[in-house]
Amino acid sequence: MRRIRMATTIAVDPSLSMQIVRGGSNQHGAVVEEIQGLIKVYKDGHTERPQIVPCVSPTLPPVFGVTTKDFVVDEFTDVWARFYVPKSNGKLPLVVYFHGGGFCVGSAAWSCYHGFLAKLAAEARCLIVSVNYRLAPENRLPAAYEDGVKCVTWLKHEVVKGSSEWWSKQCDLSSVFLVGDSAGANIAHNVATRLCFDNPYPLILKGIILIQPFFGGETRTESEKNTVQSPRSSLSLSASDTYWRLALPCGANRDHPWCNPLGKGSAKMEETRLLPTLVCISEMDILRDRNLEFCGALAKAGKKVEHVLYKVVGHAFQVLSKSQISLTRTNEMIAHIKAFVSADYCPL
């Protein structure tokens, strides 16, 4: 089991200003990219990530009724996953979850994800596996997609071979959902498109849930240009551009298919096998219009898609905001996810 180093600093509100800073130097040369408080990249490639959100161990209070544990998926790449297994007398649908962070920051051990996923597992009655994938720019895309595919394949092998781990006895491989928020939603979408062609039987993918999916493009949308952002917003347009510069293959722009699934270079939706999809959209998010356009394209292509628009909240509110309206909207989101996962589900 992977050991997670506990934070010794006082937790701070992670919804800090996403100001982009260039300049400055140290022994690693000049700073070439920076999102203040989150990531700093130097000319020689050295990358620093201040611990703005504390990492926590998998321990949970008994009141949650959820057992948690970390497992190594791939020792070579240091990919691991955190499991959330609610008490159950039968098998549970499997949710493979990918955290957000612009592909460049974040962790399955971040306290904000730990609390959110523990609650989601308990209330939605599902077994959740939160993937700690490799980060950019040290590991540019498609590394995160490859890690997602590898984790799903590893889960299938563990269950099929009859793993002695307690979670495998409760995992229903015939009801699997890929879920993520922000960049994690982008990963879930791209992992799903890969797995749909690989036929990972007996693992059966039932659907994907994309929470504020992180897509982009060279041409700005109205919400990107005109949405008024709080200085404490978790995603500004300049931060979004920086994340894409650090995550995409060198030389690629924001119309790359991994960033812009509706761009000219992307596969046509009509010709792509896609799973039933639920898209969770935030009204005050700069990504709102891209998310709505994505849903419209899926529907036009004859794909099964539904979306929910959460009023008066911004990007990543469900993990980064503790306001009363955010807590209310988070409860609504969990209810929507539960309904999507539970639809037509009959435990073995």
Quick synopsis:
With 348 residues, this protein is α/β, with parallel strands linked by helices.
Q: Beta-strand percentage?
A: 15-25%
Indicate the mean pLDDT: 90
Helix content: 25-40%
Number of helices: 8
Helix-strand topology string:
EEEEEEEHEHEHEHHEHEHH
Distance from first to last alpha carbon: 29 Å
Poorly predicted regions: 1-24
Shape: globular
Q: Give the number of DSSP strands.
A: 12
Computed Rg: 19 Å
> What class do helices, strands and sheet pairing give?
alpha/beta
* Main sheet characteristics: 8 strands, mixed
Q: Which sequence of strands runs across the widest sheet?
A: 5-6-8-7-9-10-11-12
Secondary-structure map with pairings?
Layout (H helix, E strand, L loop, with lengths): L24 E2 L2 E7 L3 E4 L4 E2 L17 E9 L4 E8 L5 E7 L12 H14 L2 E6 L10 H18 L10 E11 L1 H16 L6 E7 L10 H5 L10 H11 L29 E6 L5 H13 L4 E6 L6 H4 L3 H19 L6
